[in-house]
Design goal:
- The chain is an alpha/beta fold and about 325 residues long.
- It has 11 helices and 10 strands.
Length: about 325
Amino acid sequence: MYRSRLIRSSLAAAIIACAVGQAWAQAYPDRPVRVVVPFPAASATDVLARTIGQKLSEKWRQPVVIDNRPGAGGNLGTELAAKSPADGYTILMGTVANAISTTLYKKLSYNFVKDFDPVTLIATTPLVLVANPKFPGNSVKDVISYAKSKPGELNFSSGGTGTSNHLAGEMLKSMTGVNMVHVPYKGTPAAYTDLLSGQVSLMFDNIVAVMPHIKAGSLKAIAVTSAQRVPSLPDVPTVAESGVPGFNAVSWIGALVPAGTPPDIIAKLNTDLVAVLNMPDVKEKLAASGAELKPSTPEQLAEHIRIEIDKWGKAVKSSGAQAE
C-alpha cells in the first residue's frame, strides 16, 4: 500500500511540475527580452539580430532589446550572456567566433559548449575575398600568381588575429603554398579604411558586411568562400572552383541561452524563431544581404557547433595564432 501511495504521489508531482512548466512557457515572455550581440552595431550579427528582434517583439508584444557588447573577439558579450540568469530573458547571438575562441584562447572565463543551451541555427554567411580596385588581378589564380611572383609583398587585412577573416587567409596560404602577409587591425572598420585606401590589397570578410562596398564599386569581389556560389553574387566564383578544391570557410550565427534554461522555454524560443526565419519578408531582406537562413533544431545546432570547433581548431593550430 505504501508503495502504491508513493507511486501515486510521484506521478502527481510529475504532472504538477509539467503543468507548471507549460504554464510558464505559455506566459513567456511577460517582460522585455535581451539579445546579446557580442559585436558592434552594423556588424553582420547585429544586422540579423535587429531584423529578427523586431519580428519577435511584434509576435510577443514585448520589447526585444539588442545589447551590443563588443570586445575580445566576441568573448566579452559571450561571458556576459553565460553569467546571466537561465530564465529565457537573455539570448546570445553565438557565431563562428565562439568556435574559433575555444581553441584560440588559452583560458576563457566561460565554456561555450557547457555554459549554453542551443536554440536554433539562424544563418550561414560566406566570406568574400575582396580586393582594392587597383589590385592587378580579378581571380584567385591571379592572387596566387601575384603572390608567387612577389613573395612577401602581397598583404591581406583582418579584424584581428584569430578572427575568421584572418584564418580564411591562413587557409588559403596553407592550401596553395603562397606567402601573403597578414595585417591585423583592431576590428574590421579599421581594416576597411586601409583596404579602401589601398594600403593593403586583399581581405576576406563576411558577405553581409562587405556587400555594400561591392555594390558601390569601392571593392571588387574575387571569390566567395562557401562550397557553392551564393544567389546574391551569382557571377562570383567560389575559391574551391577557382583552383583550390576543398576550400570552405563559412561564418554562421545561432541563438543560444544560458545553460539550465527550462526546456519548455527553449522549445518556445525555437518555435518562434523558426517561424520568424520562415517569414517571406525576413527571407527576402536577409537573402539580399547574402545570408542563407538555416533554422534548425537545438540538437542540430549543437552538432553544428561541435563540427565547427573541430574545423576551426585545426585552422588555429595550423596558423600558430594564439590569444591570452
